[in-house]
Amino acid sequence: MMDKKRLEEIKEAYRWTIDNSLVPRLSDSDTEWLINQAERALKNAQDLEDMDRQLLSEQKRIMELEEELKELRAIYSDINRERIRYKQTLKEIKVLAEYDEYENTLEQVYNCTKKHWKVNSNECK
Q: Three-class SS string for the chain?
C-alpha cells in the first residue's frame, strides 16, 4: 500500500472512531507503521539540517573562490599590461638598433626605454 493512501486510511479510521464516540484503536501494524514514518521524518529532518549546513559551507567557499578569482584577474590584467609595455619597448629598441645612421648608443637606447616606461608613449626620439 502506498504511504499516502495508508496514512489517509488510518486518519479516516481514527476520525470514524472519534465520530462514533469509540475509543480509538489502531492495529499493531498501523501503530508500527506510524512509528516508522515518524522516525523516517525525524531522520529526513536531520539529513536536511546536515545538507543545509553543508550548503552554507559550500556557498561560503564559493564566495571565497570568487573573491580570489577577482584578485587573480586583477593580477593577470596588471601582468598583461606590463607584458604589452615590454613588447612595445622591445619594438622601440629594435627600431633604434636598425638605424645605424643615427649612431644609437646604448645610452640612447636606455634613455628611450626609460622615457617609454615613464610616459608609455609609442615613439622614442
A: CCHHHHHHHHHHHHHHHHHCCCCCCCCHHHHHHHHHHHHHHHHHHHHHHHHHHHHHHHHHHHHHHHHHHHHHHHHHHHHHHHHHHHHHHHHHHHHHHHCHHHCCCHHHHHHHHHHHHHHCCCCCC
